[in-house]
Amino acid sequence: MKMLAIICSCLLILASACSTSVSGKLDAVLTNANGEDDGGDTGSNEENLDEINAGKQQLGVKSFIQIVETFESVTGFTRGANQSIRNYYNSNKAALPDSNSIEAFTASQRLAIFNLAYEFCRLPSDTDQIRADFYEGTIFGGRNDEGLPLPLGPPTQVLNSQANKLELINHLLNKFWGTYQFSDRASAESELTSMIDYLLSTLQSGETLQSNNVTKYVMASVCTAALAAGPVILF
Amino acid sequence: MIIKKKLSERDKLEYLTHGGRTGVSRRNFIGAAAAGFVFAPSVFDLVSRKLYAQSQECEGLINNGPSPFGAVIEYHAAGGAAWIEDFTCGGEGGQLDFITGEEAYWNYGIPDDQNYNIPEITPDSSLGVLVHPDSAFINGFNSAALPGVKDHMAGFLMALKSSSDTSQNQMSAAHIFAALGRNGSLTYNIGTQTGKASGGHHELAIGTYVPYASPTKVSSPTEARAIAGLGDLVDRLVDKARAEKVLNTLKNMSIARVAQLNNLTPDEQLKVLVGCGYEQATATPGKTNKENLFPTLPGADLDLINQAFAGEISTPEAAIAHLVLKDFAGVGVMSFGGYDSHDGTATTSYQKRLGGAQRIATLFNYAFLLKKKLTVIMLTDGGMGKVVKDGVLQTQAVAPSNTPLGGQAFRAERPGDSDILSCAVCLTFDPNRTATQMLISTTHTQVGAFAKSGVKIDYLNTSNDPSKAALCMAYNWLALHGKEDEIKKVNSGVDPFAGRDNAKYLIFKGSKV
Fold first, then answer.
1. CA distance B352 to chain A (A)
2. A28 touching B, CB under 8 A?
3. With a cut of 0.90, is the ipTM above it?
4. Shortest Cα distance from B23 to chain A (angstroms)?
5. What confidence category does residue B268 fall into, taking pLDDT thresholds of 50, 70 and 90?
6. What is the residue extent of each domain of chain B?
7. Pairing outcome for strands B408-412 and B417-418
C-alpha cells in the first residue's frame, strides 16, 4: 500500500512537470508561429491592452449560413418553404464565404451572394400572391377587398415619378437595412434611383414602359442590390 | 452530452448581425494578413502598397491580366499512393544511383528480378523524369496522353516522408504560388474540396496561409460556370451593361458602408482591399461569361476539351484545368481518394495509380492543345507497405510487361501503409521547350535520396519537412521562369536553399528563348 502511494505521488509530480513543460512549449510555438509575440497576457498591462483595443478590426463578412439566415430573416422567405431557394442554396453554398474573414472575401464570393440574393428577390417580383404581401402598403403590392392581389402596374404607372421610385427603394431598404437613417442611406437612395433610371432608359427589344414585366425586373434588381449590399452582409 | 441552448432573440440578432466575429487586435490582424510568419514582407502589404501607389484605385487587382507565371495544379492522392513503385528511386547520386543488393527494391514493391539492377530494365525517361518501364504511372500516362505531349515535359522526384492515412500533412504549396504572383483574372485559387484552406486533401504548408487565396470550390463544369456568373438576373436583364449597372449600384452602396467604418477601422489597407473586391466583382461579368468559364455549345473550344479529356468532360480535372489554363484562376487543387486500397492485393493499388496517371495526362493534353505552360505537383500521404512470407516477397501480376522481360510485370502485395516509403513528384510542360531545355541536367531529377529502407530523412531538409518540400516545389517552379531568387519573398527575405547544397534542390532552369 505504501509503495502504491509512493508510485502515485511520483506520477502526480511527473504529470505536473509534464504539464509545465507542454505549456512552455506551446507558448514557444505561439511566439514562433507569429514571428513575434502574439499579444500575450494583456490583462495586467494597461498600456498593452490599450494598444490592442485601439486596433480592433471592425469589419467582417457573414459566413454562408449567416448570409442565408439573414436573407431569410429580412425577407421572410425560408429554404424550408421555398424549393427554388433551397435548391439554389444547396447547390451553390460552397461558393459563398466559409468564414467571417474579410481578408478572404473574394470577388467570386460577392457574385455568389448576389446570385443568392436574386433567388430571394425573384419570388416577390414574379409571384403575385407573394408580391401582394411582401409589398403590402405600397403601390407595388396589396390586395383588394376580396383578398386578391392588386395588379402590378407598368413603369408608366408605378415608376413614373421620383416619389414612386423612392417608395419602392425605401420599402426594401427598410426591410433589409432597417429604418435607422445611416449616413449611407441617402447615398443608397441616390444609387438605386440612378439604377432604376438606367434600366428604364435602356429597354431591350420587345420591352416597353407599358409592360409590367419591366416593372417586375426593376423590382427584382432593386431588391437584389439592396439585399446583397454591404449593410446586410458585412458586419 | 451536447446541451442545446435555445437562442434568445437577442442572441439571434447578435448572431445575424455580428456572426462569429471576435475582436482581433491590429497586430494579430496584420499578422494574419501577412499570411503567417513565413511571409515577410507581407504580401498583403505589397498589394496594398501597389494600390496606394495608384491613388487607391483598383487597377492592380482588376486589370491584373494573365499571370506571367505558368499554370499550377496540385494533385492530392488521398490515402497513400505507392508512387515510389512507379518513379525510379535512387540514392544520393540521383535517380540513376540505383539502390543495390538483394531485396534492394522490395520496400518499393519491386521484386529483384524486375528492378533497375538487371540489364533488361532501363528506366523510361520519356516524361523527363525516370519511371519504371512497367509502372502504373507510365502505362496510365501513355494510354491517355496525346502524341507530342511528352516531347515537352520534364519533372523530378522528391524523397519525402509523410504521415500515412491523414489529411493533416502540411505539404500543400497552393497559397505560396498565389503569393508569388500566380493569380487568375477572376480568382486566385480553386479546389475540389471544401473546408480546407488548400482546396484539397492536404493542409497548407505551415505558415503559408494567404487570406485572399482562399479557394473557391470547383469540382465540375457546372461549378466552373458558376464561379463568376451572374445567374439568371443577367439573362433577364438581357444586356450585360444593365447587369453591371445593378452590380455597380451594389458596389457603391457596399463601399459606402465600408467607408463609414473609417473611424473604427485603423487599417486603411483593409478598406481599399474590400472596395477593390467589389470593383473586381463588378468588372467580372464584363470580362467573361458562362460559356467562357466552361463551354457547352458546339464549337472549337468544346472540341478542344473533348479531345484533351477523351470526351470525359464532366469531370473535376476538366473543370479545374480549364479555369487554370485559361487563367481565370491562378492555382487549382484536386483531390482523389482511395489510394491505399488495403485489400492486400498488388493490382488495386496499381490500377488506382494507373487511373490517376490518366487523369494527370489529360491535364497535360489540354495544356498541349492550348499551348500553355503547366506544372502539376503530385502529393500523397504516406505510401504502402509489403508482404514477405518465408523470406519471399509476395507479388502479383499487375500488367503485361513492356520490357524485354516479356510476360507479366509483378509487384508486391499491398497490405497497409508506410510513412517512410513515400515521395512527391513535380511534372511540368512547356510547349516551347524540351526536357533538356528545362532541366539543369537530365541526370539530376531527384531531390533527396532513398535507401533500401525508404526515404533517407537526414539527407536533405526537404525529406522530413513538408514545409521545406512545399517551398522547394515553388522554388523549382520559379526556376522555370528564371526567377528562383523570388523564393525569398515568401521566406522572410531569405533563400531557404542557398548555400553549398543549393544544387541539390535546384532541378529546373529558366528559358533563354
1. 28
2. no
3. no
4. 6
5. low
6. 36-65+230-287, 67-222+293-505
7. unpaired
